[in-house]
Amino acid sequence: MVQNIDAAAFQKMVIHAAAALNAQKQAINDLNVFPVPDGDTGTNMGLTIGCAAAELKKKSHDAVGQAAQTTASALLRGARGNSGVILSLLFRGFAKAIKDRTEIDGRDLAIALDFGVAAAYKAVMKPAEGTILTVSRMAAARAAGAAREDGGIEFVLQAAIEEAESALADTMEQNPVLKKAGVIDAGGKGFVVILQGMLDSLRGLPMPALAEEKEEPAGKADFEAVNVEDITFAFDTVFIVRKLEENQDMEPFRAYLNSIGDSLVIGEDDEAFKVHVHTNTPGSALNEAQKYGTLELAKIENMRTQAEDLAAGKHVQSTDDLEAVEAELEEGTSAAPAKAAPEKPYGFVTVCAGDGMAAVFKDLGVDGIVSGGQSMNPSTQDILREIDKTPAETVYVLPNNKNIIMAAEQCIPLCEDKKVVVIPTKTVPQGIAAMMAVDPDAPEGDNTSAMTEALSRVATSEITYAARDSDFDGFDIKQGDYLALVEHQLFGTDQDLDALLDRLANAPAQQDAEFISIFYGADVTEEEAQKTADIFSQACPGAEVTLLRGGQPVYYYMISAE
Predict the structure, then answer these.
(1) For 208-212, 417-421, 476-480, 526-530, which range has the lowest pLDDT when averaged over its residues?
(2) Topology of the domain covering 459-561
(3) What whole-number distance in Å separates Cα of residue 108 and Cα of residue 12?
(4) Which pairing describes strands 344-352 and 368-371: parallel, antiparallel, or unpaired?
(5) Residue 562 to residues 12, 487, 515, 516: CA-CA distances in angstroms?
(6) pTM exceeding 0.90
């Protein structure tokens, strides 16, 4: 058994773990309990650890402590969703424990795992059992015991995994919601996959291929068929390389590309090979390719921004526009500073999905919009980027989703030149209410209190559909049923949308409201939305009903009642 690992081995272990997690991300997403179509734990954890893998591929480290620190830093900035943030915290503590070590053995690993658990539990205000926290804590405890039996790192890691798997199975018994749904905890599953991926690397097992790998290339991405929320790997990357050797073994290169992207196709002849891959790190793909020959031609296009432009009715930029863009950049017309110096006391950054929602926030004075929401949580780095661009001394951040709050809070210590205040908004209507409570002339403390207090006056309802069959909270839910959620709790389900809307309109939250705002989503026509507004107007004669186009994905309607 392997006794010690150096920096190179650790880097390989993390890269392997990232590939393992991404290969199973959909299976982990499917463990999300609620039947709404926004299960994203696997995606969030995959994107989070993928940031670490990308950084580790850029350079080698002399000491395992340095490699661990690089991992922790990348995870922190790339953290998405609660599961991603907790994963970053686990590695932050891990890195702290071994920061001065050139190599580590099983005893060091056990201590590092314990430090990671301590960091995660310390950061979570109300730690719950039956979660990734439980699984990581039990794994660390077993690692400590195993290290006293045998100090080899392979032995200790194997023991930790066995205990983690046992703890994962128990999450169903520890969490009543999981037990009712008959599933184990998604975050805990992701953590086990990461540990197993690290062990597989240690044992020299091959890198797992991504589950989404396709046999045929897309030639050129069909952006009309692409939903922005579904784009995991943003850059459509195509390049041609002149071979160094006629009989070049391409399998290691193929395995590497599978670890950093999907939709991979490699075509070759005796002299050259052509690669098509979707990845978030096209530079890494090109650098690796140059080990096999001379780069002759490359094309990189951002599918996410192209899809967004298409949805907004804008011209879709492609490599055909490169000369015009280059001229514009040379003139300095599109250059923007990475950081904006403070020009005013207060600035605001909010997270939302849908151009209609973004327009509402802009009208209320929000400086920066981070695209994302329930179905795609932005990373800490995404939020920090908008904070940096906001020209204010104090920047308020409105996450508008409970799974984004922790990622937003990670920005507070990372922003050095501005004060960051996170208002814990869990819904878009709460974010709107918070913005309406702002007094630009009031002291910071008064604004913080007023914005926070405004949240309690808003009741949020959402209409979506069931992504799968489920028995939840006494409801027999069938795939495709319409679902009504009130404060993220299931209110009702029906195959008739109008009937469900009428029931919701007659619920206490709406009946007691003075103001009702209805934001209709991307899949709802204006005529359909007006019909919904009429239902609420008739059911709630004492309320002022406002209809607004939100343009949000997944949710047909978001309804605010105050």
Answers:
(1) 208-212
(2) Hypothetical Protein Tm841; Chain: A;domain 3 (3.30.1180)
(3) 18
(4) parallel
(5) 53, 13, 5, 7
(6) no
